[in-house]
Fold:
Amino acid sequence: MSLQSPRDWEGMAAIAQIVAETLKEMRSYARPGMNTKELDDLGLQLLHEQGARSAPAQDYQFPGATCISVNHQVAHGIPSTRVVLQEGDLINIDVSAEKNGYYGDNGASFVLGEDHHGLSPLVEASKEILMGAIHRIRAGQKIAETGKYIEQQARKKGFATICNLTGHGIGRRLHEEPREIPNYFDRFNRQRFKKNTTVAIETFISTRTKVVDELPDGWTLATRDGSYVAQHEHTIVVTDGIPVILTLNNGIS
Structure:
């Protein structure tokens, strides 16, 4: 959306802070032996305490308040009592919510406890690339340049990027124009970032595969070949200079 008034700025800042704090608390709360439904219950409680509603549950009838994906799951993982967290798991938590008609979105991948699978470099690469991409965004810049930067940086670090998951516009709805902010260079994409618009910038950095597939549950997206993928996401405001990161306090950077 385009921020047209102080009310718009305040509304977006408020919901962004809520989803950021919720994500940070959920990451701190996660423990080996805990199931993902327990973790999601905390997220739901935190959102409700601050007067916010889960965006995926409200808008898409997602069976959970937050998306929690584990190991080879990449996105839209359904919270479940059957999914028990283990030491060394790669966990992704994505928190998006609505309050007073404004939407905020952020996500983070992290290794739980000891890094048994050597995934810390992947996680750190995703975080670094996200922040680098965000700090290069300017009003008037082609969206394709962001995808080009993410893809190039991932390759330099020995990783790949997921092509069928992207960032997106956000504001009065969870998904707005631009509908896609890819993690790769799309030379046919002529769209440009516009001043004072809010967008969700995401990295999907992979150990090998470039695509994810939907599981039979109709929600969870996972790698077919056993690759691991780290995702990190911020909601930002595009400006003539360095963007304003509305979800900065989620602890990613």
Observations:
- The first strand starts at residue 53 and ends at 54.
- The chain has one domain: 6-250.
- The mean pLDDT is 98.
